[in-house]
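Dear support,

We are seeing what looks like truncated structure output for some complexes. This example has two components. We would appreciate it if you could run it in full and send us the complete token output so we can diff it against ours.
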Amino acid sequence: MFAYIVRRLFLMLVTLFGISVIIFVLLRIVPGNIVDILFDAAGFVDPADKANIERELGLSQPIVIQYLHWIGGLLHGDFGYSYVSEKPALEEILPRIPITARLAGLALLFSASIGIPLGVISAVHQGSRLDYALRVVSLSGLSLPSFWLGLLILMASVSMFGTMPIFNPNPTTWLEAFTIYAVPAAAVGFRSAALTMRITRSSMLEILRQDYIRTARAKGASEAAVNYHHALKNAVLPVITVIGIEAAFLIGGLIVTETVFNIPGIARFLVEALRWRDYPIVQNLVMLIAVVVVVVNFIVDMLYAAIDPRIRFGD
Amino acid sequence: MRSVQALAVAVLSVLALSNVSHAGEPKSGGILRIYHRDSPGSASIHEGATYSVNVPFMPIFSNLVIFDQHIAQNSVDTIRPELAESWAWSSDNKTLTFKLRKDVKWHDGKPFTSADVKCTFDMLMGKSQQKFRQNPRKAWYEQVNDVTTNGDYEASFNLKRPQPALLSLLASGYTPIYPCHVSPAEMRTKPIGTGPFKFVEFKANESIKLVKNPDYFKKGLPYLDGIEFTIIPNRSTAILGFVSGKFDMTFPTEVSIPLLKDVKSQDPKAVCVVEPNNVSTNIIVNSSAPPFDNIDIRRALALALDRKAFIQIMFEGQGDIGGTMEPAPAGLWAMPKEMLESIPGYGPDIEKNREEARKLMQKAGYGPDKHLQIKVSTRNIAVYRDPAIILIDQIKSIYIDAELDVVDTAQWFPKIARKDYSLGLNLTGNAVDDPDQSFYENYACGSERNYTNYCNKDIEKLFDQQSAETDINKRKKLVWEIDKKLQEDVARPIIFHARTGTCWQPYVKNVTVMSNSSYNGYRYEDVWLDK
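Here is the complete output from our reference environment:
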């Protein structure tokens, strides 16, 4: 187990290194840089001024030197400066992380707390009207784009309550504080809940046909004990995988929700930084997301072993 | 009896008047909440070229002079003193001298002096040690030799030749005075001004906050305690925010005509105005390469345009047809209607124009069996894309099959600069309704923003002639002649001039939306909330 963990940690580092190279190179392959965008606002490009700014920002250096400069800085805790705001990149990124983390966390909570029980109910009542109804709900969850759902929610709020749950950094009541996160989390979590529900249902259906489930029933175990103790525990592995993938997806996938609900999180910030070709922000944010994804995957793998003792990580 | 009636009428009149007066009495306090359409790149007005910078940061600054903030049509007659107490032209019209106020302090407490005026314009003219990261309006001061000071409270602009338009350029929202003691880099992130509001914070993609300047040199102003801009790039969310009462005002001139209907239906009490914004939608033609190096094809293109159709489709009829200068009545320099309609392509009979265009195309070797294949390049932004699609549809009628080529914003100007296009759909905004700003910027030989490299030395002489002309009526006639010639030369065919809407809640008072510029009306010093 120890050797496996060490090997996984080593692989994590290699993966992160690979990602750092890919993001760095891709960013520079994309046409245009911050100076082009700055001059775009001015309506013309002055070659001399452009060269000056590129030199000032270090963009005229060879790409390898730029990469080493960035990685060297990262290793020393220097994340560089945003080209746009001219503030330290970390100062720009850090305040946005809790906002997105709260939103993603709530969305995942919504997804798991709705998706798993409904998936179980749907599987247990396979072929019933309830099952069909739940499957329609889950299909609509997968089909409805979250930006559309978000806009509908906003329009309905304005029309019905005369207000709307868009972000406010200083909420005045606990209800407002809850609403500004819970409503967008529900909008984005609906799709995720639908996916979780479908995976739970199919996994449960497979497990419910196993011999040991029949044995449990033959031994007189109650339906609840069979479904939740014996079946769900064994059916939950693929669900955990999906939730893990969703967690990673949500960080990037929140862009649309953050835009519609005007939440100043890292997803929207990343898109804006990309538009400005603000390399220090984009590079560091993508690396941050990569770290989160890699770590979540690692945790999911560790959870496999904890949940299913039959899984042993080979030496 | 008659005297009793007269007395009653008089009493009622006095009561009514006092009521109006009371209702109109400005109240101090409150925060004006506006949504902002995007996150500006910096807080430095001198380094920006979009009114996304002017709107939130103009309240921080003061100019030497400013267009009257409550007269919608900017003109020389509406220029008012601000940091200057008065101004005077020399007898040869080559020196413009400003007497400055002595009671002005920067937001950090340092006194404002003539040295700050000199510093600002030295930087704008590229003469100082400190440099702007970008300086998009350097060309405005082409005729200024230098700025000199006489003591702490007098500054003079010494010109190479008379240029009456200079005063208008100085009155624009684009011409604030910057402090000598603050670097351009600091002005991009934490600007310091002398204006009615102080900068508090600018969180990119989130908000911009300003607070009342208690030491503002105009006593009793501003009325507001502050202004807060919430950055909401999603237009639907922003409009919903306004109608739900989260904002007191929309971002100025940002409500499209179709959206205006939504606002009025959802929030009938909202006050909305529609004004021209002195932004033209035009075609840039690469006349340095085939096929548009052929003047016949360029002329055919100009003849094919059905400008009314553009306006009907995009603005439900609320737009204007004109030349380079903004159309009347909002525009000061517009050609008379008869003169405009005498220009090929501007006549009312579209079918006749297109018939003529088809003949020109046939002369150039194209016809029903041989269509010209081109690309129409434009930026990947709706206000650019939509007219480009209409343009493609219209030029089909003259044997031109065009394909839309949408270009990422970062690549737009580099692409135009390397002449990597045949036909482009472009928008041109004018900060000041004055030919000096428009002609030199967009049509002068060698100008950075003359994207098509149109260069006509004869017209350039006329540019200078009108620029130096101090008789406004003579100048107007010259401007009309130039504008007509520019359209006939198909230098940059103007399709239409847009109109846009601004809305605010009825309790927001003293807001005026300018009708011939989107860059000059955001000082907000006497805006107040009747709550």
